[in-house]
Amino acid sequence: MAAYIGAVKEVLMRFDLSAILLLVATVLFLLAAFSISLGTLALVPLGLAAFAASFLFTRKGFSLRG
């Protein structure tokens, strides 16, 4: 076994629409958890909608398959 002391490994992240929707869902859930209101908007249903919509967008675009 070789030891990789000081080796740097580059990791590429995908930052597409599904990742953005997951970030939006996380922010909405955190706002709802801390009881921060945005007027009459219900944050938990919006967070759930963003979370569900993130699974519809893949690398190849919009997909209704799993």
Features:
66 residues, mainly alpha
Please tell me what the overall shape is: flat
Fraction in beta strands: 5-15%
Biggest sheet layout: 2 strands, antiparallel
Question: What low-confidence regions span 5 or more consecutive residues with pLDDT below 50?
Answer: none
Provide structural commentary.
The chain is mainly alpha-helical. It has a domain at 17-57. The mean pLDDT is 84. 44% of the residues lie in helices and 6% in strands. It has helices spanning 17-33, 43-54; strands spanning 57-58, 61-62. Strands 1-2 form a two-stranded antiparallel ribbon.
Produce the secondary structure layout.
Elements: H1 17-33, H2 43-54, E1 57-58, E2 61-62
Antiparallel strand pairs: 1-2
Helix pairs in contact: 1-2
Short description:
Helix content is 44%, strand content 6%.
